[in-house]
User: Fold this.
Amino acid sequence: MTRRQVAIDPAVAAILGEAEERQEQRRMGPGKRKTAKRAARRKAVTWELDRGVVGIVQEVAGALGISPAGVVNRLLVDGLERLAAGEVDFEGCLVPSRSPRYLWVVEVGVNGLGEAVRRRLDIRD
Amino acid sequence: MRTLAVLNQKGGVAKTTTAVTLGHGLALRGYRVVVIDLDAQGNVADALGLEKQPGLYDWLVRGELSVEYSGRPGLYVVLGDKRTVEAKLILTGKPFRELVLLNGLKGLDYDAAILDVAPGVDLLQVAALVAATHFLIPGALDQWSVVGARDAMESAAALRAAGALNGQFLGVLPTFWERTTNEGRQQLEFLAQQFGRLVWEPIPLDVKAREAAAHGQTLWEYAPDCRALQGVVLNGGQAQDRRVGGYVHAVERLIVEVGL
Assistant:
């Protein structure tokens, strides 16, 4: 007999999905669990930001009294809107990647940007 | 004014904690809220660090409305104590007794009234359902509480069939959610199968809730960063981490669902 399918809240579905995964892992032997963990790690995405960018974001967050995530989210949405409007693209900043996972690496220059932002927001050392 | 009845026929499922936490959560967002204690245990007073008083008795039997200021901006209370039992006995002999709260609430001017309903089936539970514009069922994630939630739904369905219930069922709010136990998962899954999208994001089990009650403070005062308020982060890989559950989310959903 098949179980009746009902629409459930996405967050509740995510909770049940996570619980299911956890139970699945409990049923596995140690070897299989290790393999599954490795596979999960491979699937995970690492979000690395340029160190210079991180420094500026932290300064802006501190000056405005908001979280660094808040600064990143605000500016990211702005950037995505500009991307959608065709005002920004990735041409000119792509260099071939040495990693087999990606074709290109994006190189961004932050020279002088920190100083300009500091001036604009009146951030003093 | 929106009137929210918080009920479950099973006791000990965090009805009072839910009523007080939602009430104070709304007050902190600028709404004027009155929490009305319909339980003779008078735990709303305990939860807010106030003295128990026969406020409900005075209101329903003597016709003297005594809304107390809770000491928290925007949050008011009608307190209860053991005299609530007496009130029920007196009202039982009166005609149109099921309308007692509906009529009484007409004199109040708040954005929301939250009725903390006692467990079991009695006159005040029926009166609360008749008076409510919305009702929410907190349910601990164990077998008996889930059955209690279903029984409360059946009472509501019977009243609706009799034309006495106009309120909207907002859903089931799972409480005492234990993320790592099979029991928690199974009961949440069972609820989701029964009630679909009407199952709200669960409130994580959190010792801070008990501690807050013992200190006569709400969770917003005692432990604003605790899991019961803020929920927990589900691990879905770095990019997919998401925060789920907790009363913060419940307050936000409540505001949207009742149109505050």
Remarks:
- Chain A has a mean pLDDT of 83.
